Amino acid sequence: MTMSSDHPPPPSPTVRKLLVEVIEARDLLPKDGQGSSSPYVVADFDGQKRRTSTVQRNLNPVWNEALEFIVSDPKTMEFEELNVEVFNDKKLSNGNARKNHFLGRVKLYGSQFAKRGEEGLVYYTLEKKSVFSWIKGELGLKIYYYDEIAEEDPPPPPQEQPPPPQEQQPPEEVMKKPVLVVLEEPPPMQLPNHVPMKFPNHVPMEPREHLPSVVRIHEPPPENGPPPENIPPPGYSPEVRRMQTGGNCMAGPMPGERVKVPRHPSNGDYSPRIISGKLAGDKSERIHAFDLVEPMQYLFVRIVKARGLSQNENSHVKIRTSGHIVRSKPANQPPGSDSSANPEWSQVFALGYSKDAAANSTLEISVWDGGASEKFLGGVCFDLSDVPVRDPPDSPLAPQWYHLEGGAADEQSTVSGDIQLSVWIGTQADEAFPESWSTDAPQPFVSYTRPKVYQSPKLWYLRVTVIEAQDLHIISNLPPLTAPEIRIKGQLGFQSVRTRRGSMSRHTAAFHWNEDLIFVAGEPLEDSLILLVEDRTGKDPVLLGHVLIPVGMIEQRIDERHVAAKWHGVEGGPGGSGSYSGRLHLRMCLEGGYHVLDEAAHLCSDFRPTAKQLWKPAVGILELGILGCRGLLPMKAKGNGKGSTDAYCVAKYGKKWVRTRTVTDSFDPRWNEQYTWQVYDPCTVMTIGVFDNWRMFAEPGEERPDCRVGKVRIRVSTLESNKVYMNSYPLMVLSRSGLKKMGEIELAVRFACPSLLPDTCGVYGQPLLPRMHYLRPLGVAQQESLRSAATKMVAAWLDRSEPPLGTEVVRFMLDADSNSWSMRKSKANWFRIVAVLAWAVGLAKWLDHIRRWKNPVTTILVHVLYLVLVWYPDLIVPTGFLYVFLIGVWYYRFKPKIPAGMDIKLSQADTVDPDELDEEFDTFPTSRPPEIIRIRYDRLRMLAARVQTVLGDFATQGERIQALVSWRDPRATKLFIGLCLAITIILYAVPAKMAAVALGFYFLRHPMFRDPMPPASLSFFRRLPGLSDRLL
Questions:
Q1: pLDDT tens digits for range 538-550
Q2: Host H or E run for residue 88
Q3: What is the largest CA-CA distance in the chain?
Q4: For the sheet containing 437-438, what is the strand order?
Q5: How far is CA 411 from the centre of its chain?
Q6: What are the strands, taking DSSP E only, across 343-429?
Q7: pLDDT of 524 above 70
Q8: What is the DSSP letter of 206?
């Protein structure tokens, strides 16, 4: 056998190339002195520069040129920056220009590049180089990359004599072309579902000394503790090392650490609180990747397979320690083998481990025959004190063969063979932990208890513009002077939208609509769009035909460019399925420039558009440590009158959902799982919910939804940069019986982001939604219906996962019913308005106190300040801004120290009426008896009457203002315009400062000079007529 047959040939080396197609530019700025420009484009990527040709004197130039770049390292491509700049060629300008005029630039990152075949034409708005630049216009680019096989040079012929040694080049020549690439490596210790965020290589980080201190509780370290983890190499800067290790400069928690939280009674405080404790113990500089949670040690046993076993029917493995006994699943036979002597299991077990309890314990692993008679086939014993400790980023422990031994002399004859396994001690950060079988999970339901990470489906808006229809087979026996009522009904999955009545052309038998129908389509785009042509002239609609269009064949666009309309034949009319039934003129496209809302706009966790090419680079990492819960209430009934709770936690941010493992039968579950998300916009909200697992106990075909325990929302913008928040939040549920506190959840949150990075601060000045939402906005009602459809699609997608994330969980996390009517929510919004206007009420009261001289000293000081501002009016604006600045500095003392949770007072949940709660949780349409419905309707009429009165008063005040000059009351109008003329003459004759001083002093005059009756101006205004007397 030759060497080539023993070893496969190595894969051919590939090289990645980046292609930038410069298509055209629009509406450029004239810079040549003759009202035009001669633009060209320069692209810079990874130290390589490419240039297009110059288009002479054209403000809308077209190039259609491709610029090719070599990607030096494909692994770091997403961190590289592409700069595309547009210049005016000075050679073609009027006069002697000393430099090429700058016309704008576009800055992109590798994360926005598409693979070849997925690219699209994107028009980027040209950006300024500095604040004083005057730039306008757009640049159309197609950017994509591809890999091709690199051509290797043939090896050089052997030289007879060795070449002379080369002289060492000086440093200046070696570093002639420096290339600096800062690569953010993921944390060294992570779960498989732990997705670290990577920063672009230009992001500066804050020094380590400015990190806030983290208060933790540490137990004394064990004498023989595990060795310290590998710290990033010294070649990286301290800032990069800090971001690699999670941003915590203190020592991580030691094994066995517990946070002591005093347990509150069920009716305790409803506000979040800080988890406090003493800082003691380890002073080393050991850095943990999972520094937000407590390490929990487990004994891992990986059972792979066995060989040479004695005769058996169906073997299985039993694992026994001092506190646990578990059994493996039945063995699988290897492919191509019918013998039971070589079974395979490939199963990992995670058993709870305590160093103190395992000091003198042993681990017994035995193989048994699972047939009719339980027969012992052999076993292996381990001393737990000799089991190695695995500390990631170490590679997985390799399984080894162990010879099976028998316990008694009579068993030696039936024991034979070997078993392949590995045993180690690790934590929940081990990559084998998510798929392992835990001792606290019931064996038939293990798949429902494991931690998982889910991704929401990629959603598109499908826009269908119905233009016109021709040659439709309309019923001929219509009554005279009756126009047919033709409508188009679109269906996509469960979504159904209908157009308005079509207008008929006078000259041809065509119907026109020019109306947009918008649907939500989810990937994979396997559904078909069905357009039904209906004649609704009579009582019963008549189907005139249909059009079937696969969604995957519809064109995708990511901007407002024009999409060509096409004619589609109508099939299935009254004449039969094969006959010609007319045609429809349609314009269809999948909109990639919108963000498909599946959450309420004020609770949204992501605003990125569907098209990846339009994504901006991430500005930070959001890290969440789910520690556990305290004092949960029982959710299920057990024997002997006891209850139990099988809790798990779900966190959602952006498109990523995470689900912790289910801790069974515990009122104080401890998860200690840590997850990360990339943050593209800090003005977003993360949602964390706790649920009780009922699905794992459901029979096949039975639907048992999980029960909600409570949820917490955390707004990312309220978190300080690189600060760890370890807090306990109350879990509250509002049900028909009222508000109930279900327990508390302990969370650790950190937003790893440079505090004053220009990109982070610049987000606050950018539009909240993508560009298409402002160029072609959607209506409020339309957006709500699309959001409802998107929520259903996300829920259906996640419900098909394993383990499924139930529809009730997704709807609760997305607040699908946030827009439903509720008297409680209406009261809450009213009191929010009152709170917002409280400052105006307070200012009016303060002015009234000044006018009434309640505090003479303050009133005199206000007089002096008023004189200064009137005499020096230039100080009014800066004084106002200075006052606002001082208010902000003053309120810094009262800033929130922890992220706020759910506020029961703001929600009006503590004072809600039981009948209002019953109305809030009523179904739609209602399921209550008519007597209750009549009472609620009367109550709603009373509330509507108050609102009606308030709206009428507002309208009356506006009509009185209009009546000043509308001559509805001739005498009042004459008095008003005469007074205006008198004021005009006085102000022309008297200096403005003197008039302002006189008016101010008259307004602030002493109460002894005031009349207790309303002033004449107010009485005059109240006598003006409104239009309320004309109402029927």
A1: 788 888 889 999 9
A2: strand 81-88
A3: 126
A4: 400-403, 418-426, 298-307, 344-352, 437-438
A5: 61
A6: 344-352, 362-369, 375-383, 400-403, 418-426
A7: yes
A8: -
